[in-house]
Write a structure and sequence with these properties.
118 residues; alpha+beta; Alpha-Beta Plaits; ABM domain-containing protein; Dimeric_a/b-barrel
């Protein structure tokens, strides 16, 4: 079985009061734009629980090591303002899981899933 060597996936879930979701999006959007512009970021998708609009999750895939993600990427200045605004909104602790991607043959994305960036 093939693996995606040096490729990791970060899965994050946060919990907010529904009335704080617009404040979250306002802080999240510029950070999202900065993250997806990083050459090592190969995938980023955000999800919202249909029965709990304050529960927001996302998946980020990186062509990097866990050490690089934690030591280099997460230390970038654009996270500071985002965290200062959003962390006080959390009603439960943030959940994060870092996984190694399996890769081919167990990866597929159809063009109809969303936009592609080069």
């Amino acid at each position: 079985m093939s693996t995606t060597s040096g490729s990791i996936s970060l899965h994050v879930t946060i919990h907010l009061k529904p009335e704080d979701v617009p404040t979250f999006w306002a802080a999240f959007t510029p950070t999202y734009d900065a993250v997806i512009a990083e050459p090592e970021c190969t995938f980023f998708e955000v999800y919202q629980a249909p029965d709990a609009p304050g529960t927001i999750s996302w998946v980020e895939n990186w062509s990097a090591t866990p050490e690089w993600l934690i030591g280099v990427q997460l230390a970038k200045p654009y996270y500071h303002e985002y965290l200062a605004v959003t962390e006080p909104l959390f009603v439960k602790p943030r959940e994060a899981k870092l996984l190694k991607r399996v890769g081919e043959p167990f990866v597929m994305t159809k063009k109809s899933n969303g936009r592609f960036l080069e």
